[in-house]
Amino acid sequence: TYINGSSQPGTVCGTASMQPQIIIKGYSRLDFGATSDNSAIRGVAFPNSMVVGHNSVYLSSDNFTLTCSFFGTSDGATSGDRGNFRILDGAHNVSIGTTDEADRNIFIGANRVALESAADSSGVIQNNYFGTNPAGTEIAGSYPSYIALGGSWDITANIFAYNPNFTDSTSSINIYNYGNGSSGKITKNYVGTDKTRTKDFGSGADYAY
After folding, report:
1. Contacts of 52 by beta carbon, 8 Å cutoff, 6+ apart
2. Cβ atoms 157, 121 nearer than 8 A
3. Half-sphere exposure at residue 6, Cβ-oriented, CA atoms within 13 angstroms
């Protein structure tokens, strides 16, 4: 399954003014089951989700790619009530973003974990912006944007600007041990600052393991 919102006229990816035109919200949720391997979402906004669990996307299949999409926002600046991505057991070789920064996803205003995964999952999270505008230069949204991961994940070259609800359990990057053990690499991320590394967004952004 390939949901390609970037083919919609007016959709912009990979710039300071990136803007999806396909918006999924309310009681809608996308479920990618175990038989939906090799699926992808590109250029879609999920500003909020009112379904049970408050997850906009559920994933339990392999070889999935997410690019140029918004979670917790529809415009990259203001935050919705909810909107997040949940990776379930059995999902492997998942790519959230790519090696190209132009494919970045924006996660703001999730009002809970923006991106979470279960113990039996694996993949790469790279070149995404958490808690910033699409340019990666200013804090965006009014709720925390952080990730909580089980499984084996490589987390590289992301921006984690700020988490106003900082506690030991809501740090910007949480690596959890769900019993099966969690592993992976965390490299070259910007935490508590912007893309230029010149701004100090204050306390409330860190790693927790």
Report:
1. none
2. no
3. 18
* CA separation, residue 40 to residues 23, 32, 62, 98, 101 (Å): 16, 10, 10, 12, 17
Predicted model pTM: 0.88
The rounded radius of gyration (Å) of the Cα atoms in the chain is 15
**Terminal Cα-to-Cα distance of the chain (whole angstroms):** 34
**Cα four-point dihedral sign 30, 184, 132, 82:** positive
**Type of residue found at 141:** G
pLDDT in tens, the chain (209 residues): 999 999 998 888 988 889 898 988 766 778 999 999 999 999 998 887 655 555 688 899 999 999 999 888 877 766 655 667 888 899 999 999 999 999 999 988 655 677 888 888 999 999 999 888 899 888 876 665 678 788 889 999 998 876 554 444 455 666 655 545 567 788 888 887 888 888 877 655 455 44
Q: Whole-angstrom Cα distance, residue 95 to residue 97?
A: 6
Query: Which residue has 């132009």 as its token pair?
Result: 102
In DSSP notation, 119-178 reads SSEEEEEES-EESB-TTSSSB--SS-EEEEE-SEEEEES-EE---TT-STTS-SEEE---
Which letter, b or e, does each residue of 33-71 get, where b requires 16 or more Cβ atoms within 10 Å of its Cβ? eeeeeebebbbbbbbbbeeeebbbbbbbbbebbbbbbbb
